[in-house]
């Protein structure tokens, strides 16, 4: 009897994402983290004294806090071997033709300028530690919308930045928030005035090209009363044989009757520690919508948090995680119902294969005063083989009982019966498995903007050979 071939499921085809440019820069800090390096970063950026003081205080907090041990193993991450600041060999420009050719070629291959021409109201592109390109349509400027890089915002809108910067995610929140406070660089600032509805998305793309480096962009978005905006964030890096670190920070302020959709595809390489912190606060009748795709990364710890502090505030979270060989992706969502009649809906899906570990870690907290609140949490995990791992760790903390809470978790493998049924209808085994996976992620894909839905489908396209067994 012929022995069956073991089913093989190919890795994500990274293609353009692993293209590397020659490592060129105007300035880079020494490896490691010292007060001297922090002062050099601040001096390079010509920052006001209050920001230097903030950085140095954050460094103190970083040195006083332990490395978290409750999640993935971080013992292989050596901060002393990370370069925390690299100024690329390019200045910020609003003209794509002025961006250096090698950097422009990278973003061209990722589809950034093409996407801008077709479907975006504004684009920012960061390369290593600094924004190299930023542009916004004039009609938005005429309406008072501000979309610029954080360094420019700190100079031109200093009072607003000072009022909001790391107030939602303070440096003492955890060790890597403190690290971010000490060495942050780049990122985007968005301000949407009262009543302005931005119909076309804004997008920032973050590319880490340098080996053994960190990227620490800060994104600050303020959506005033009755305003609306959709912000898209893309991230990628080529694979190197040394560890890279991403410890960005996202702070979102959604005011009364405002709406913000925040879509992300994080497609880091498998030498990346992705220790990102994202948090939103939502006022009365406001809505935050998270759409999140986590791919790549050696290790990820990512739990976007929504604080519903206004009556009838809403949070929606839709996320997909794909963990393959050598990946430990610890992702999820956190929601705090801190006002009456608030609503949240969490829909998280994960796929694991070839020994990858996908873990959903969630927090749902309802305050004593948040009566009449409703929340639904759904976590589904699909394992594509017998070597993979998947877990859910939901924490539900309820301080009153005048609420409606639902939680559902499913972990399973691709059903042999479903494969057999589809094959009996003339569909090949490979296509049958691909159909099941596509159906599994379809609720996520349909929430993404078109070009990102295409990217998502490309990232999870799986090639199968052999037969079941």
Low-confidence stretches: 1-18, 462-469
**Could you tell me the number of beta strands?**
27
Secondary structure class reads alpha/beta
Number of domains: 1
Strand content: 35-45%
Please describe the biggest sheet, giving its number of strands, its sense, and whether it closes into a barrel: 13 strands, mixed
- The rounded distance between the terminal residues' Cα atoms is 14 Å
Number of helices: 11
Helical content (DSSP H or I, runs of 4+): 10-25%
Mean pLDDT: 84
Shape: globular
Rg (C-alpha, Å): 22 Å
What this model shows, in words?
- With about 475 residues, the protein is an alpha/beta fold.
- The chain has one domain (about 20-415).
- It is built from eleven helices and 27 strands.
- Strands 6, 7, 9, 10, 12, 13, 15, 16, 18, 19, 21, 23 and 25 form a 13-stranded mixed β-sheet that branches. The protein has a ten-stranded mixed β-sheet with strand order 5-4-8-11-14-17-20-22-24-26. A two-stranded antiparallel sheet has the order 1-27.
- The longest helix is centred in the last third of the chain and has 17 residues, at about 430-445.
- The protein is globular and about 65 Å long.
- It starts with 7 loop residues before the first strand and ends with a strand.
- Mean pLDDT is about 85; it is low at about 1-20 and about 460-469.
